[in-house]
Amino acid sequence: MPRFVLLILDGFGIAPLSVANPRSQASTPTFDRLEREAFTVSLQASGIAVGLPWGEPGNSEAGHLTIGAGRLLYHHLPRIVMAIQDGSFFTNQALKGAFAHVRRTGGRLHAMGLVSSGSVHSYPDHLYALFEMARRENISMELHVFTDGRDADPHEARKFLPQIEERMRALGVGHIRSFIGRHLAMDRDGNWDRTARAYRLLVEGRGERTPSVDEGLESAYAAGLSDEFLPATLIAQQDENPPVVQSGDALIFFNFREDSARQLAEAFGASAFGFFPRRELDDFAFVTLTSYERGLKAEVAFPAEKIGETLGATLAKAGMSQLRIAETEKYAHVTYFLNGGIEEPFPGEERRIVHSRSDATADAEPAMRAQEITTAVCEAITRHTHDAVIANFANADMVGHTGNLAACARALETLDKAVADILQAAAAEGVPVFLVSDHGNIEEKRDRVSGRPLTEHSLNPVPFFVIGAKGAKTDTDQPPLDQRGSEGLLIDVAPTILAVLGIKKPASMTGQNLLK
């Protein structure tokens, strides 16, 4: 029989009911009951509480790392910012190697990555530091931009890219040579046709052409496209040979988040690759800002730090079998990130992926694959297949990113039903359930002043419910969650679970048992 179930509702934050909160339009009897009757606390899930800069919204990577580690970790973002501030960024051997490579070969230096204020996959200051490094090295840079539209305003590129161009001009360090939406360039669901379009833009110069960034963006916007879905576009005249990536060149991939960078990174750095034809790049240097995955032929500027014993490692050490299950979109989070950046499963850890739909956007199908995940979790409970069941539901985050209020309400109703079914199965077997989120998103989908749709993450706290566990006392007179303020941190989740199991938490975990 499972000793516990952990459900991570991705992107499910706490906010007052209002026209900006889709929950005001949804029927959520299960969540309503849990807030009244279950042990419930509000957890900080943004900024320094999850190792991000102060005031920075939380994200799935930082949230899952923090839940799994049970202690505060400095995320890639602030680690790299600190390197910029202390000057070590500019002497980083991997980065300096890219500049030295093109100085030796006479080739071009390229940089590619997400240019966004969203700070989930990349950070503007990291790119600006590369510009400054190019100025110091007296080497021009060819910049290939991935546009956001999901973790930032849907048309942010309209104002952001001209600022980038102006900064490059002022420093005399190069030009923007192409842009493409993250839907194509940063696919993480195995849609290799999308990755191929990004690769062919970068290496073969295949894409639409526009004489300027402004004209290209306005043309795409006029066609109804947001930044996320911009087509592969070269900034070049029709008869011009654009500066694409070729032999003798160096390429810096400046995204810090791993999962959404892997497919395109494999196209440039995997020794064995069979998803689409690649061009042979001789004497080519590839540098990634962080370690995206093992086996890539790439220099890594900022390798991952050792985290210590995580929740998964502690469970495995105690001889417990584990089931990890999620949709494609969040599979890396409930496995790789929750395990502290470790690719290989722990002994007794089974990983199950439920393939996300690629034929419909999240707002067109807000239920996503929640039913399949629910069925798998309930079967694991009733059939006693694993000691621990850990599942991620992607609906609140993925549908929240669309900013579609009606679809968000439907997603919340889907989650409410899924949680109800799992709680019923768990109660019948006497299995405690822990229910938490990694960051806010779906609870705030309209700007409170302008009323414009919001597609990005929020700074809001997240709920932590403990149902059916010994010591999980309830207070029926407790005020609503949105009126209580933060009562804990995400680092407290793992220590609380281990305390319920009677397992001593590792010395590396600094979080507290919230049931005390």
TrEMBL record:
<dbReference type="Pfam" id="PF01676">
    <property type="entry name" value="Metalloenzyme"/>
</dbReference>
<feature type="binding site">
    <location>
        <position position="438"/>
    </location>
    <ligand>
        <name>Mn(2+) 2</name>
    </ligand>
</feature>
<comment type="function">
    <text>Catalyzes the interconversion of 2-phosphoglycerate and 3-phosphoglycerate.</text>
</comment>
<dbReference type="InterPro" id="IPR017850">
    <property type="entry name" value="Alkaline_phosphatase_core_sf"/>
</dbReference>
<dbReference type="Pfam" id="PF06415">
    <property type="entry name" value="iPGM_N"/>
</dbReference>
<feature type="binding site">
    <location>
        <position position="121"/>
    </location>
    <ligand>
        <name>substrate</name>
    </ligand>
</feature>
<feature type="binding site">
    <location>
        <begin position="150"/>
        <end position="151"/>
    </location>
    <ligand>
        <name>substrate</name>
    </ligand>
</feature>
<feature type="binding site">
    <location>
        <position position="10"/>
    </location>
    <ligand>
        <name>Mn(2+) 2</name>
    </ligand>
</feature>
<feature type="binding site">
    <location>
        <position position="439"/>
    </location>
    <ligand>
        <name>Mn(2+) 2</name>
    </ligand>
</feature>
<feature type="active site" description="Phosphoserine intermediate">
    <location>
        <position position="60"/>
    </location>
</feature>
<feature type="binding site">
    <location>
        <position position="401"/>
    </location>
    <ligand>
        <name>Mn(2+) 1</name>
    </ligand>
</feature>
<dbReference type="InterPro" id="IPR005995">
    <property type="entry name" value="Pgm_bpd_ind"/>
</dbReference>
<comment type="subunit">
    <text>Monomer.</text>
</comment>
<dbReference type="GO" id="GO:0004619">
    <property type="term" value="F:phosphoglycerate mutase activity"/>
</dbReference>
<feature type="binding site">
    <location>
        <position position="188"/>
    </location>
    <ligand>
        <name>substrate</name>
    </ligand>
</feature>
<keyword id="KW-0324">Glycolysis</keyword>
<protein>
    <recommendedName>
        <fullName>2,3-bisphosphoglycerate-independent phosphoglycerate mutase</fullName>
        <ecNumber>5.4.2.12</ecNumber>
    </recommendedName>
</protein>
<dbReference type="InterPro" id="IPR011258">
    <property type="entry name" value="BPG-indep_PGM_N"/>
</dbReference>
<feature type="domain" description="BPG-independent PGAM N-terminal">
    <location>
        <begin position="81"/>
        <end position="293"/>
    </location>
</feature>
<feature type="binding site">
    <location>
        <position position="330"/>
    </location>
    <ligand>
        <name>substrate</name>
    </ligand>
</feature>
<dbReference type="GO" id="GO:0006096">
    <property type="term" value="P:glycolytic process"/>
</dbReference>
<comment type="similarity">
    <text>Belongs to the BPG-independent phosphoglycerate mutase family.</text>
</comment>
<feature type="domain" description="Metalloenzyme">
    <location>
        <begin position="3"/>
        <end position="505"/>
    </location>
</feature>
<feature type="binding site">
    <location>
        <position position="457"/>
    </location>
    <ligand>
        <name>Mn(2+) 1</name>
    </ligand>
</feature>
<keyword id="KW-0464">Manganese</keyword>
<comment type="pathway">
    <text>Carbohydrate degradation; glycolysis; pyruvate from D-glyceraldehyde 3-phosphate: step 3/5.</text>
</comment>
<feature type="binding site">
    <location>
        <position position="60"/>
    </location>
    <ligand>
        <name>Mn(2+) 2</name>
    </ligand>
</feature>
<keyword id="KW-0413">Isomerase</keyword>
<feature type="binding site">
    <location>
        <position position="182"/>
    </location>
    <ligand>
        <name>substrate</name>
    </ligand>
</feature>
<dbReference type="GO" id="GO:0030145">
    <property type="term" value="F:manganese ion binding"/>
</dbReference>
<dbReference type="GO" id="GO:0005829">
    <property type="term" value="C:cytosol"/>
</dbReference>
<feature type="binding site">
    <location>
        <position position="397"/>
    </location>
    <ligand>
        <name>Mn(2+) 1</name>
    </ligand>
</feature>
<dbReference type="InterPro" id="IPR036646">
    <property type="entry name" value="PGAM_B_sf"/>
</dbReference>
<dbReference type="GO" id="GO:0006007">
    <property type="term" value="P:glucose catabolic process"/>
</dbReference>
<keyword id="KW-0479">Metal-binding</keyword>
<dbReference type="InterPro" id="IPR006124">
    <property type="entry name" value="Metalloenzyme"/>
</dbReference>
